[in-house]
Structure formats: C-alpha cells, structure tokens
Amino acid sequence: MATIYEVSALAGVSLATVSRVMNGGTRVSEKTRDKVNKAVEALNYRPSSIARSLASNCSNSVGILVSELHGPIYGEMMSGIEKQLRTAGKHVIIAAGHSDAVSEKDGIEFLIDRNCDALILHVEAISDAYLIELAKSKHPFILINRYIPQISDNCISLNNRRGGYLATKALLEHGHRDIAYISGPLWKMDASDRYLGHQDALSEYGIICNETLLFESNFQEEGGNEGILTLLDTHIPFSAVVCANDEMAAGAMQAARDKGLAVPDDISVMGFDNILLAQYMYPKLSTVNYPVKDMGKMAASWILKNIYQAPQPEITHVFEPELVWRDSVNSL
Amino acid sequence: MATIYEVSALAGVSLATVSRVMNGGTRVSEKTRDKVNKAVEALNYRPSSIARSLASNCSNSVGILVSELHGPIYGEMMSGIEKQLRTAGKHVIIAAGHSDAVSEKDGIEFLIDRNCDALILHVEAISDAYLIELAKSKHPFILINRYIPQISDNCISLNNRRGGYLATKALLEHGHRDIAYISGPLWKMDASDRYLGHQDALSEYGIICNETLLFESNFQEEGGNEGILTLLDTHIPFSAVVCANDEMAAGAMQAARDKGLAVPDDISVMGFDNILLAQYMYPKLSTVNYPVKDMGKMAASWILKNIYQAPQPEITHVFEPELVWRDSVNSL
DNA sequence: AACATTAATGTAAGCGCTTTCATTTGGTTT
DNA sequence: AAACCAAATGAAAGCGCTTACATTAATGTT
C-alpha cells in the first residue's frame, strides 16, 4: 500500500500539499493539484484512515448500540442510520446491548474505546442518571426511542403514550369496551408509556382500567401467545386485546386461533409498530405506525449536524405515531 | 484522556513496560506490573485503539457487508457475527450492499479503506471473478451464503439446492403433483440453487418441470403476492406452491386468501428460511430451516482462527438445511 | 522599480502507541 | 568475589497522517 510519502515524492511536492489535495479544503493551485492526483492515481494511493484519525483526532466513525441486531425494528433503524451516515463517508460500528444494564454499559465503553466520534444509543436498561452523567463527558451521543427531560436535546423519541392512546381509542370508537392489554416489560419506558396511553383512552371514555386485563410480557411472539392464554384463563370477558407490539400481536392471534377463537370475529387484535409483516399477517393487522427508519435517519442527521458540522435540515426530536387500520379489528 | 506517557511517568517505568503490561503477553515482574496497574487505575487510562492500530498495523475490526441491514435473515446473521466477535474484543463495522454490484464494490472498498483486518461478505451481485481476484489481494475475507469453487475455503454456504429439494420432495411425498414455484431473482445464486433443487425433486418423481408454473420474483412479501396472482391467472391447475423464502410465502398466502382460496385446503404453501415469524403465520408455515445465525458465528470463527490466530473449533463450510413441518401443507 | 499583500507550498513537530535492540538487574555458578 | 546468563527494563525509531508556522512565489500598488 502506497503511503503519502511516495505520493509526495512522485508528484514532487511536500507531504502537506498532498494532504491538502486529499482533503479538498484549502487552496492548492490547479497545476499541483493535477500533479498530485496523477500520482495518487498511478500509485493507487488510499489514505490510511487510521493514521488520519490519529493525527486529526477524528475517527469518522459513529457507534451504534441497539438492543438486538435482529428484529424488525432494530433492522429498520440501523438501515436508516447507515444509509445516512455512509453517504457522508462516516462509518458505523455496531454493538448489541441485549436490554441489560451491564451489557449496555459494556457496549458503550466498547464503542468509546473504539474512538467513535459519537454514539447512537438505543438503550433500555441503563439508568437516566448514568446517561445524564455521560452527557457531561465529552463523548457526544444521541438517544433513540427514549426521552429524558434533562437532556432532551440528546433524545429522539416516539410519542409512545400517544401511540397507546391511539390504539385503544380506535378500539373504543368501534364499540369495544372490554379491552385487554398485553404489554412489554413495564420497566421499559416505551412499554410503560404505551400502557399509559391505553389508560388515557380508557379514562376518556369513562372506563376504569381493569388491572386484571393487563398481562405484562416480553415484546416477543411467544410472549403474546402466553399473554392471550393467561388472559383467557381469567374468564374475564374481553372483546379486544391491544398488544404493545406487532410481534406479540402475531403470537396472540396465533394462540387465540389455537383456542378456537376467530380474529376479528371473536376477538379483535390491535398491534403496535407496523412492522413490514403486519400487513401480511392473517388477518392483516391493525396497528400503530412507528416511523423507526425515519427516526434512525434523524439521529444520523443530528450527528452529522452537531458533530461533523454538516448542514442538515431541521432536527425533529419527537415523532408522532399514526393509526394504521386494517382487518384485525371489527366493529361491535 | 490519559496517555501512555502519563501512566509511564506515574508508575516510574518506561513506555515499553506499560505497553507490555497492557498487552498481557511478555514477561514483566509482578512488582512492576502492579505499579503500572495502579497508575492505570489512578488515571483511568484506556489505550487509544487508533494509536494501537497505527503502530501495530492491526485494527481489530472486521467489516461486514450485507445486502440489507433489515430483514430477518440479515439480522440473525449479524447477530451471530457480532456476538462471536465482540467477546473476542473485535469490533464490527457494517455496510449495506443493496444487492447491487456497484454498491457492493463501494461497500467493500469502504470497509477496506477503514482498515478492517478482514471482511465478512454477503454479496450477491458482484461477479465470481471479482471475488477470486480479491482473494489474491492481501485483504482476507469470508463469503457467506455463497459458494465459489476456486476459493471454496473462503466460503460458508448453505446447501441451497438440497433445501429446494427437501421442500419440493415433502410436497411430493404428501401427494402433490402440480407444484408451482415462486422464486427469488434467478441471477442470485441462492435463488437458482433452490430452484435447481426443486427440479431435482420433481425429476426424481418423474415429473417434467413446467416452466409456466415458475414465477420469478424478488424475495419480498409483495413479490409473493404478485406471484400467486400471476400463477392463478394462467389457469394452469396446481395444488401447492413452494416459495423460495418465507416472506414471499407470507405474501402468497395473503394473496391466495384474498382470492378466496383457503390455505392449506385449497392450496398448500411451502416456505424457505424458517424465519422467526414463520411459526406465527396463519396457518403456521412449513418451511426449510436456514441456520443463518450459526453460519454467522461460523464466519466469525473462521476469522478469529485465520486472522487472529485464536483457537477455534473445526470450521464447517457448508451447512445443511432441514425441513420444518407445520400447518401450511396438507396431504392429498 | 520597490514594496506590500496574499496565495501557494514546504518544514517539522506531533498524534499515542508498538517493537526491536540495547542495557541493566539479579540470581547462579565456580 | 569474579564471571556468566537469563529475565526485566529502557531507549528510540517508527506507523502514516495533519497542521501550525515559516518560507517562497505571485500579484497588485504607487
């Protein structure tokens, strides 16, 4: 691999000049620029990003920490981020935090040690306090899908509460009154916010939220499965169930059917997230849209703007969910 | 951030000694090791991975190029890779290739420019020739889900042909004789291999493969949708359809139902990949298991073994698919 | 033509480590 | 106590760039 020395020698200019033309910026005469470019071409020279980082103290890399690398939501999110960042010539280092505090801290340290210029964090288990503290350090980061008032500028989040509200309200508008709820782990912000929204809608209709119709689950298909079974076992009647994400909704529908219940005739199901497969479930799932890809892009924009001083359009910090009406809910 | 100088000063030893204790390896007396560790502790020193990389010419990073960051398959794959690599202290830089030759080459160059020690490539559009050439360069890589005889040692692949065979054979064994096929883009190796397997099974049963019952699609739900519609329009009777992946199977089931056809009573559907959601479709999808996570792990192992000289268990280069029998196929 | 400005280029000092080779230390041997 | 040797440590030269500062060339002014 050719180095900048060889280029400078071949072009008959100094190191500094080569560096200048490689980095665009500063003034270099047309003539020398050409000479350098020819030499670069001839030697097939590619600057070493490592050496560049060391000298400039900027690694051009941003670290992403998500709970899992698989799963429809994280995939979309990373997809949005990577696209945005790569066109800007930045690269993306990823790590998984597995929704576990220790593992998440590990991941953050790992990424920081890797000299990331900034981090995009999707963390669930780590405390607000830790994050607030981190914000004081000189390691910039943006939080995705989480809102912490003290550092609101570092947050890009979905209005989950409103999403929960929308989901349940749609059910109520269609005549449902006995509505069960399969939640994600309630210690997770998004899960509890969504549930809060559910309660908002209920109380708007003067309905007292029945805690026994709540099943706290794990955001996974199998959890939806288990949820519906448990709920059914209580023998408390309900005509609809809202699931805090689409995967649990899939599990719930499956389990309901296994029990001989038809969806939506015997029981209506509402999801949340609007993952791609929601429209291919049977029946097609009514759900709440979570524009996660856009949020990923926005997080990337924030970094481009705040860390790399690239001009960017206005940053949106909180995104609004929207109801997506399909076939899994019927009218009473 | 403290540097190695400060540590060396505080501990009263030379740079080299600090470096030695940081890197474990070489002999340092207990006493000095302690002194150094104390200083490290006191200063909260973390070595700069950048400087380390520059000096040692090893970046401890491996680049991953997948077609898309979203999608159930890639997610599982990356998940397997990241887990394996991170426990070894390596980090993972990702890029997307979008199944497009130009974009894939871009991605490879991008990762190489980032000084990755090795690459894990899931590329579809790039030619064999290019990769064979690349193998001659000093940039090590492992190909995942692709087999090129000339560089077989760099390949970790699924026996797709056998998978296609298994899928269709299962249908044949259950009495189906008129079997439609919704394929992925046939220029993609995996798609054409799976189709070949389908033909293998057919000819084993003495059935002439009817080209009009083949629909070449895009591996996406919507493509399965379109596929079944087109196939139905031909008015050539068929009792079952095998889809070259589960997502298309979801689309196909959906579309069949929209046309008033019951699955599996009027039409049986077989998928491929065994994505997580396959078991939550309705009816539960019969499919062929693609152990993609294990393959990701294996790719990581290969790198750990071949690039970082870490001891690893035996490397498996070709993985075998397995039939997963569920409810979307009936017996004739 | 002499001088002041500004643009273009060069010099050299780092960036924070690793690593080779030389030197010192301390324990053994005779 | 002298001589020897292996183990421990240190000195210093890079790794391939960027960048502040110095120098030179080009242009404009009067």
Using the alpha-carbon principal axes, give the shape of chain A. Answer: elongated
Which regions of chain A contain 5 or more consecutive residues with pLDDT less than 50? Answer: none
CATH architecture of the largest domain in chain A: 3-Layer(aba) Sandwich
Strand proportion of chain A, as a percent range, falls in: 5-15%
- Number of helices in the DSSP assignment of chain A: 12
Q: How many beta-strand runs of chain A?
A: 12
Major β-sheet of chain A, in short? 6 strands, parallel
| N-to-C SSE string of chain A, H for helix and E for strand | HHHHEHEHEHEEHEHEHEHEEHEE
The whole-angstrom Rg of chain A is 25 Å
Largest interface: A-B, 47 and 47 residues
Description:
The structure is a homodimer of 332-residue chains. With 332 residues, chain A is an alpha/beta fold. Chain A folds into 3 domains: 4-47, 434 Repressor (Amino-terminal Domain) (Orthogonal Bundle), CATH 1.10.260; 59-158 and 292-320, Response regulator (Rossmann fold, 3-Layer(aba) Sandwich); 160-289, Response regulator (Rossmann fold, 3-Layer(aba) Sandwich). The first copy, chain A, has 12 helices and 12 strands. In chain A, strands 2-1-3-4-5-11 form a 6-stranded parallel beta sheet, sandwiched between helices. In chain A, α11 (246-258) links the parallel β8 (240-243) and β9. In chain A, α1 packs across α2 and α10 packs across α11. The longest helix of chain A is centred in the N-terminal third of the chain and has 16 residues, at 72-87. The radius of gyration of chain A is 25 Å and the shape is elongated. The first copy, chain A, starts with a helix and ends in an 8-residue tail after the last strand. The model of chain A has no long low-confidence stretch (mean pLDDT 93). At the A-B interface, α4, α5, β2 and α11 of A face α4, α5, β2, α6 and α11 of B. β2 of chain A pairs antiparallel with β2 (91-96) of chain B, so a sheet runs across the interface. Chain B binds a DNA duplex (30 and 30 nucleotides) through residues 3-5, 13-20, 22-23, 26-29, 32, 47-48, 50-57.
